[in-house]
């Protein structure tokens, strides 16, 4: 009897024999994954790729003869494949993490310098989830990143609307994303003008990575982007990124919004969880909110987005064609949570049109 799923084949590239063996054991333990082959450097990996093509590549960064980021860039330019980076060089404050994502990696897993084998076993679920999600990704050729042009607010909203949005401080946008979301968020936040409503973001990302991710986005965007701290005010022209390892909720004191950053159990296998954010927004902001669910595997955010829509919020889902993994948006569609589904490039304008339409309705009322 044939299994109800196709087993995904994995190529492991790491110069450590211990890591190769341990990762092989962890990946092979999942019924939907198998290790096709291993290689101890990019040259061996390239030779193997000439003979057969895996569904996913798990790649170290620091290796002999060629580093993993260089190999990743060459691979994504010539023959795009889903890649998960597993390395000691992607820790807090490291540019390697963002360099890997910008080069086309689907996900990044940090391994420590010591007790590597123990760490990998303890993180087996995280590793299996990352590899399986990557197997469903549809990578595209990655070109060198150009210096982003600054958007004029006039190009997105007419001048009369800008003034109204600056005065409307009770609007809020909540965005949730997972696999493929780091680059998707960059595209969305870069397109937001300084007069945009406040934005709250949950991106599934390990602890210690979000601060550097927020700093990088802040360099690229017109709006201010920062990792959220407990008690932060929610302000127009600013995006707050939920810290890795903690949930972020919207709270309200009178007419003013703040965020609460707190510990708590995993929700839908994640902390931070998109559902936790969306549900708090549905209760605190109701019809004054716009919810956006983007690329990612699983169903985190689907129920929370439905609660937002039920409370009168406007809701957007990223379409399948522009999603790296069409999992979370698809689940939200199934739950009836998505009001409109658009491509990644259309999300910024859709957000601003919805905010503007909502503001116009309130003014007429």
TrEMBL record:
GO terms for molecular function: phosphorelay response regulator activity; protein-glutamate methylesterase activity; protein-glutamine glutaminase activity. Its main location: cytoplasm. Keywords: Chemotaxis, Cytoplasm, Hydrolase, Phosphoprotein. One of its GO terms (cellular component) is cytoplasm. The keyword NAD does not apply. It catalyses: [protein]-L-glutamate 5-O-methyl ester + H2O = L-glutamyl-[protein] + methanol + H(+); L-glutaminyl-[protein] + H2O = L-glutamyl-[protein] + NH4(+). Residues 166-358 form the CheB-type methylesterase domain. This is Protein-glutamate methylesterase/protein-glutamine glutaminase. It comes from Palleronia abyssalis.
């Amino acid at each position: 009897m044939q299994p109800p799923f196709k087993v995904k084949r994995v190529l492991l590239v790491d110069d450590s024999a211990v890591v190769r063996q341990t990762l092989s054991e962890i990946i092979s333990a999942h019924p939907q994954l198998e290790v096709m082959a291993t290689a101890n450097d990019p040259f061996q990996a390239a030779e193997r790729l000439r003979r057969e093509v895996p569904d996913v590549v798990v790649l170290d960064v620091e290796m002999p003869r060629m580093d993993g980021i260089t190999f990743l860039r060459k691979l994504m330019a010539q023959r795009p494949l889903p890649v998960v980076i597993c390395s000691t060089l992607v820790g807090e404050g490291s540019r390697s993490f963002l360099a890997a994502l910008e080069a086309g990696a689907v996900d990044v897993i940090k391994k420590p310098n010591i007790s590597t084998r123990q760490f990998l076993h303890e993180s087996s679920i995280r590793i299996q989830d990352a590899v399986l999600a990557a197997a469903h990704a549809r990578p595209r050729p990655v070109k060198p990143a150009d210096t982003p042009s600054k958007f004029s607010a006039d190009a997105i909203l007419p001048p009369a609307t800008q003034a109204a949005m600056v005065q409307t401080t009770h609007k809020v946008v909540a965005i949730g994303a997972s696999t493929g979301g780091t680059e998707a968020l960059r595209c969305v936040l870069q397109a937001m003008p300084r007069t945009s409503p406040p934005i709250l973001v949950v991106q599934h990302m390990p602890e210690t990575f979000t601060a550097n991710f927020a700093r990088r986005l802040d360099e690229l965007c017109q709006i201010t982007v920062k990792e959220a701290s407990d008690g932060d005010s929610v302000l127009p022209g600013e995006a707050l990124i939920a810290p890795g390892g903690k949930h972020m909720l919207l709270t309200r004191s009178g007419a003013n919004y703040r965020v609460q950053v707190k510990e708590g159990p995993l929700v839908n296998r994640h902390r931070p969880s998109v559902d936790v954010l969306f549900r708090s927004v549905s209760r605190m902001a109701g019809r004054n909110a716009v919810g956006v669910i983007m690329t990612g595997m699983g169903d985190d955010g689907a129920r929370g987005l439905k609660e937002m829509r039920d409370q009168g919020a406007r809701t957007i889902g990223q379409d399948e064609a522009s999603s790296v993994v069409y999992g979370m948006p698809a689940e939200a569609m199934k739950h009836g949570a998505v009001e409109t589904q658009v491509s990644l490039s259309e999300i910024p304008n859709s957000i601003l049109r919805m905010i503007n339409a909502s503001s116009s309705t309130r003014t007429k009322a």
